[in-house]
Structure formats: C-alpha cells, structure tokens
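Record type: monomer structure entry
Structure origin: computed from sequence
Chain ID: A
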Amino acid sequence: MLSPQPLPDFNENNHDHSGWRVLGGNKPRELATVIPHPKLIPESPDLVVETAQGPLASQPNPGEAGDGPSAEFLAELDARNRGFETSEPLEIIQWASATFGSTLTFATAFGPEGMVILFLVSQLEKRVHCFNLDTGYQFRETLELREKVKQKYGIEVELRRPDSTVEEYEQQHGKLYLSNPGQCCHDRKIKVLHQAIEGKRGWISAIRRDQSPDRSQAPIVGWDAKFNLVKVNPLANWTKGQVWKTILDNEIPYNPLHDQGYPSIGCQPCTRAIQIGEDERAGRWSGSTKTECGLHSLDS
C-alpha cells in the first residue's frame, strides 16, 4: 500500500478527473452486486409512520442547551432507537418527519448515502428541508450533482455558506487547510451548521457505522449533545454494498468522481483518490491525523 500523500494545494490540476481507479477494490457497479439491499419502500400503501413508532412524548426546545434533555426523554429516545434497528430507512425518515415536522432538516454533502436519503425524501408527501454546507472548496462535480437532484426529484438543496468567501478567508488566514485543517473545518463547516440548525429539533445524517471509529457508535436516533437536537441516522446499520445496490437499482444520480477512485468526497484540497486496499475514507485529509470534519466526531 502506498504511503499517505500530503494535502495538495487547492488547484484543479492536482486532481486526476480522468480514468478509473479502484474504489476500495470494487467499482461501484461491481460492488453493488455483493450484498442485496433491504426493501426501501413499504409494499403496502397503508404502512405509514403510525404503524411503526409514534412521536416522542416530550421534546426539548429547538437548539436548547442548558442542562440538556431530561432522563425521561433520553430513555424514550433510546427505546425508539432500539426499535428502529430492524426498521427500513424510509420508515425511520417517515417517523422523523411526523415527529419533528418543519423543525426537521437533512444535511447532505451529496455522497452515495446522502443521495439515497434524498431519493427516499422524494417519496414523502411532506418534503424535508435539505441543505449543504458549501465551504467554497467543494468539487465542481458535487455542485453539479445538486442541480441533478433538483431536476430529478424537485428538491432544491439549500446552500449554506460561511460569512467570508474563500478569497477573503485565505487573505486573512492563508491556506489554512494545509496548516490547520481542523480550524478550517470549524470555521467553514461547524459554525455554518450551528447557524443552519437554529430552530431545528432534529437533523438527518447519512453516516454509516462501518465508515470510521467515531461513526461506529452512531445510533439510529439519538441525542446529539454537540448540536443540542435529535440526530437521525437512517442508514447507520447499512453497508457500502447496500448503498450502491440501491443507487443502481433505482437509477439514483451520483458523483462521477466515485468512478475515479474517490469513495468519500469532501472539500477539493483535502480529498484525494484512494489506492487499492485503502480504507474508503483514506483519501480525506491524507497525510494528517485528522479523520473527521467535526460534524460526526465524538468530541464535544
């Protein structure tokens, strides 16, 4: 296996956008044949959220920090989480929509898992608010995928941006993604997320437990103490194979960079294609000890 490469300078020419590189040992289309995906859409039109689990009896106020939720609320949330371990992702999203209504949101970076959730959200009668943290460093292909989502599903994903442009930010801090990527993520993602979830009680995430050590402990639904709201992870117990089979079976659009060896895509200067045998997130912040942007890490 090749040694991790240092983070590149932010330059389009540093990224190979041509040809195909092995994606964790499997092309997406080959990978999709490995594991059958669970049923997505309930066969019976009568199966709605009421047949699963009802709304939570009590909920903290949106964004409420203070002493946090009550022990009773956490116990109820834990019980629902255990019940959802065998539920279909659509059923979980239906429950979240019925429970949180307009105070539910979905944060997506347009990765494979996020595209599956956008597809599922498009099946709902009542749409869920969706947004993307546009740092200014995203790949062109990522932003183009946003337009494809709008055209195919009628979902306009809101772009939430930092107060400063990339140019203004780099004039003040230099290329911080090279010297202090953690601070860069905090300034251009974490701060923006705090603003985006103001007034929200629940947010949907597309993480899987098998993606990283921090994510391995993710519940289906649980209290997010970092952001003070309920976090819903409908695909937490799914595998990469299940995700890709769902994408191909349902002709869900996906980022073409996945066919070029980029299984996990974040900001352009901090993302590279992976080599054969590397972990699917090895291309993120390569050459550093950083493994998460901070949205899904266990640190508070």
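Annotation 1: Confidence is low (pLDDT under 50) at residues 1-27, 29-52, 296-300.
Annotation 2: The beta strands are 104-107, 129-133, 158-160, 202-204, 221-224, 229-232.
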